[in-house]
Amino acid sequence: MRVFSLLCTLGFLLKETQAWGFKNGIFHNSIWLEQAAGVYHRESRKGRYQLTYKEAKAVCKYEGGNLATYEQLEAARQIGFHVCAAGWFDRGHVGYPIVKSGANCGFGKIGVIDYGVRRNKSERWDVYCYNPDSKECGGVLTDQQRIIQSPGFPEEYQDQQICYWHIRARLGQRIRLHFLEFDVEEDTGCLADYLEVYDSYDDVAGFAGRFCGDYLPDDIVSTGNVMTLKFLSDASVTAGGFQLQYIASNASLFSHNYTHYFH
Ligand SMILES: *[C@@H]1O[C@H](CO)[C@@H](O)[C@H](O)[C@H]1NC(C)=O
Ligand SMILES: *[C@@H]1O[C@H](CO)[C@@H](O)[C@H](O)[C@H]1NC(C)=O
Ligand SMILES: *[C@@H]1O[C@H](CO)[C@@H](O)[C@H](O)[C@H]1NC(C)=O
């Protein structure tokens, strides 16, 4: 059932991708970037749409920044920052920047979609922060293969880490993740520290697994040419970290008998 609905979602996404194009030999089916011109999107550690205005401000401040202004969001959008999730920004506004409208995104408009000043500051949304000096881990990876490591590996990773890796392979390719070492603080439900894998160009669609503990996850193979990895650590107890390798290969090289792993 879960696989079926995932496939439906992907079918929809694949149709959507036709509108995107090649850039530097890489087929981008999203120009979604995690960070652009100092602007970045954050959701609560508890998930999507969980932050009050006060909490949203605290998230940005904690990372040494501020709520993004409308002008900063628009500047980021103009270089391709596209996130289909509403967040608080400066002066109590809620909205999101998009460069392409979709079925559930933008109401047929593109630009900074601004819901206006929210009178109720207890409403819960994501947040858009601005910090020109923010130190991020992760990045957009377009190599055919790479080793991905938790920050500081083989040293223990730090507290309060938030990393996104976006793997973009060529059109028609698939990506295989192969875990080499894995040691992330363990708790039931992996709420404290975790690595999440999405079979998608963002951390909204295509959830493929959330991992913690010291059990080495099985290989994960994408259905398309993009994958997103997200690593979060909380304010206490760190562990050894993880190391994995990804390899992009022509889809035809994956035999029909490949297994897609879900956890
Ligand atoms: C404000 O929003 C919160 C969260 O959605 C809700 O629980 C509360 O009732 C709202 N308050 C008013 C005055 O509308
Ligand atoms: C993968 O596909 C591309 C384009 O179809 C082709 O040029 C390339 O030789 C293929 N690579 C392998 C290893 O089969
Ligand atoms: C999957 O198929 C390939 C080639 O088609 C074959 O070499 C391999 O042994 C198969 N693996 C399994 C687990 O059946």
TrEMBL record:
Biological processes, Gene Ontology terms: cell adhesion; negative regulation of inflammatory response
Disulfide pairs here are 60-129, 84-105
Identify the keywords attached in UniProt to this record, alphabetized.
Cell adhesion, Disulfide bond, Hydrolase, Signal
Signal peptide stretch = 1-19
Q: Which GO terms describe its cellular component?
A: extracellular space
Location of the Link domain: 38-131
InterPro entries, sorted: C-type_lectin-like/link_sf, CTDL_fold, CUB_dom, Link_dom, Sperma_CUB_dom_sf, Spermadhesin-Link_domain
Which parts of the sequence belong to the CUB domain? 137-249
Question: What molecular function does GO assign, one term?
Answer: hydrolase activity
Pfam families in the record, alphabetically? CUB, Xlink
Instruction: Please describe the quaternary structure of this protein.
Output: Interacts (via Link domain) with inter-alpha-inhibitor (I-alpha-I) component bikunin. Interacts with ITIH2/HC2; this interaction is required for transesterification of the HC to hyaluronan. Interacts (via Link and CUB domains) with ITIH1. Chondroitin sulfate may be required for the stability of the complex. Interacts (via Link domain) with various C-X-C and C-C chemokines including PF4, CXCL8, CXCL11, CXCL12, CCL2, CCL7, CCL19, CCL21, and CCL27; this interaction interferes with chemokine binding to glycosaminoglycans.
Q: What is this protein called?
A: Tumor necrosis factor-inducible gene 6 protein
